[in-house]
Write a structure and sequence with these properties.
The protein is α/β, with parallel strands linked by helices. About 40% of the residues lie in helices and about 15% in strands. It is built from 12 helices and 9 strands. It has a 9-stranded mixed sheet, with helices on both faces. α2 (about 70-85) crosses α3 and α6 (about 160-170) crosses α7 (about 180-190). The longest helix has 14 residues, at about 70-85. The protein starts with a strand and ends with a strand.
Length: about 300
């Protein structure tokens, strides 16, 4: 079922709401959409209620001239949870969607969250002022502020489409089917250039390292062997969390930035194991995933 809601600041958010039972909320990444999770919606709506919003200006949610900030997206998530009267939920955030989840917990706490899944997001996309080289590596920082501003300028300019295509190609496995790559690119090109550039700058600039102490529930961290997000940063996040496990997906199992759609059977098995289906977890392990133990 497709629904829509009007936020308190006048944006329209459209979202998928399928199934019944325990709630699983899926949060997509920058310039993408809830359609990224089509395989998870199909799989898990049979046993639980799955909700997957398109953030404002993304996917099927219409263009919006304001509010393209991580903390506003977190407020939108809070309003959606209130609207649907969700008392408790498992929340999965992928890429920027993980940042939205972190902002939600920073603002609203963990009272309505049973479990969390973080998929392939560093603690700080941009190197922050005063970071040592080791701190930047632990945080997973991809570039400095000047580089970030340069990329944002490209995204806002006449070559936005080419910049987004280059971004996408750096986040998928080399052997991805051409029709799947085309689908991912088409979704990426939906949001308006200037607003998506502003969101990119906001997303990259936030340092989340101090927020992980707020997570007092079981957490699954999923990284990729060939992702642009360094595994070291995923280990660092896992080690900040008292009840967390880390799974690294190999290249053959979609181990870049889009594992849920490049290798949905493996990803779904890993997620099902975390949600309480041991047989599914065993199936994922045999497919080539690695559970990274704590030191």
């Amino acid at each position: 079922m497709h629904k829509s809601m009007l936020t308190s600041d006048g944006a329209t958010i459209r979202y998928v709401d399928e199934g019944a039972g325990e709630v699983l909320i899926l949060l997509h990444g920058w310039a993408q959409s809830a359609a990224m999770f089509r395989h998870q919606i199909a799989e898990f709506a049979g046993t639980r209620r799955v909700i997957a919003p398109d953030f404002r200006g993304h996917g099927t949610s219409p263009d919006c001239a304001h509010g393209h900030r991580i903390y506003r997206f977190a407020a939108d998530l809070a309003e959606l949870i209130e609207r649907e009267d969700i008392r408790r939920a498992t929340v999965l955030g992928w890429s920027m969607g993980a940042s939205v989840l972190w902002a939600y917990v920073d603002l609203f706490g963990t009272g309505r969250i049973d479990r969390c899944v973080f998929v392939d997001e560093p603690a700080s996309v941009m190197r922050q002022a005063g970071m040592t080289d080791d701190e930047a590596a632990d945080a997973g920082a991809l570039f400095d502020a000047a580089t970030m501003i340069g990329i944002a300028s490209q995204l806002a300019g006449p070559d936005s489409a080419a910049a987004r295509e280059a971004f996408l190609d750096g986040m998928i496995t080399p052997g991805i089917p051409s029709e799947l790559r085309r689908f991912l690119l088409d979704e990426n090109l939906r949001p308006e250039a200037r607003t998506i550039a502003a969101l990119f700058a906001d997303h990259c600039s936030i340092d989340w390292r101090d927020v992980f102490a707020r997570f007092d529930m079981p957490v699954l961290v999923i990284g990729g062997r060939v992702s642009h997000v360094d595994i070291r940063s995923q280990i660092w996040i896992r080690d900040r969390l008292p009840e967390a496990e880390l799974v690294i997906l190999d290249e053959a199992d979609g181990g870049a930035h889009f594992p849920f759609i490049e290798a949905p059977e493996v990803f779904n098995a890993v997620l099902a194991g975390f949600l309480g289906t041991p047989a599914a977890a065993a199936g994922a392990a045999s497919a080539g995933t690695t559970v990274v133990d704590r030191p």
